Amino acid sequence: MSKIQKIKGFVDLFPEEAAKFTRMEQLARDTFSRYGFGELRTPVLEKTELFQKSIGEDTDVVGKEMFTFPDRKDRSLTMRPEATAGVVRAFIEAGVHQPGKVSKYFTFGPMFRYERPQKGRQRQFHQINAEVFGAPEAQADAELILMLRTFLNALGLTKLTVELNSLGCHDCRPAYRQALVDYYTSKDRGNFCEDCRRRMDTNPLRVLDCKVPACKALVADAPVITDHLCPECETHFADVRTVLDGAGVAYELNPRLVRGLDYYVRTCFEVASYDIGSQTAVAGGGRYDGLIKTLGGPDCPASGFACGMERLALLLDQLEAPAPDFYLAVVDASASNQAMLFAQQLRDKGLCGEVSFGSGSMKSRMRAANKSGAKVCLIMGGDELAGATVTVKPMTGDGEQETVSQADYLARIEVQE
Ligand SMILES: [Zn+2]
Ligand SMILES: [Zn+2]
To answer: How far is the CA of 320 from the centre of ligand 2 (A)?
Structure first.
């Protein structure tokens, strides 16, 4: 019978790899809770219209990349391609917002996009997200960036760059959009790629971050948003930078940084790491004051970020799993039951380690003990079973091998603690 294989773009995480994800989740929980964020878990499956309305029909994500299918009653459902829409949907649905109230949530879990799989990018991928609802202030944006930095530092990533921009607001952006459209027209629209020619009418800001070299060259001298900010947006952006400056966050202003969607306003940022030499983007975020209202909720400001866990996992050094305390080598199968019970007593005292199963030669047992990295190898065979003893062989340092009673060995652990 042929083996059943996993779906393309989906991966199994065995312990070594899964440990990285667990560590990221633990550190995110620890870090974010210190900033007053609480965990929110939302479903991976939502109504398709949620993403059509929030992300927009005219995006690659909604147009080409969603896992969308009908359920048994022919309703269109979609595996979430990102977290924010679901978090906002939950927030609105629960009706928890009151004017002036700030709600802070973080969430992590799998997201799904039908993209070409490559290193660090799978069709099921994982993100850590944080969202702040109800705070229009610049300080909320700055706090998100500081919290993200604290989290990445805790993971051991220290060579970080933050790219920062302001996208203006609904007051000042229309004039900027027009200035952009005029500029594109002056450069002859036909010189831009097909996507950009379409974007010029639907979302002219998106042309700024087109990856096509010809477009990149054409927008090099395009007007920049930061020259078009209204006084309120100027002040807001200056406040974000003042906090980041005060906290010693290294950032670069990048007026070409846009977060494609219309509901993004003011602050937007991307964080990259140089910890493994080349630049790796690890997180991005910004302010999206319009989204909650777009999805039928109150007029409530919002800001947040998403952090790609696969990207982070690529960056993390092989995590040093703590060395086991013992490896219990059973060299005579008659001692197997007693060995299992003795190991359980050790584990009850907080030690960690494994017991060999079945029978095996001393040589093969020692090889396994070495491979496990355990601090001591405990040996039990016929003699130890008869005498209720255990032979203790230190695997590190230059301690002597000795045989002691099992009771004495257990008592010794208590003394050590
Ligand atoms: Zn403005
Ligand atoms: Zn283009």
So the answer is: 44
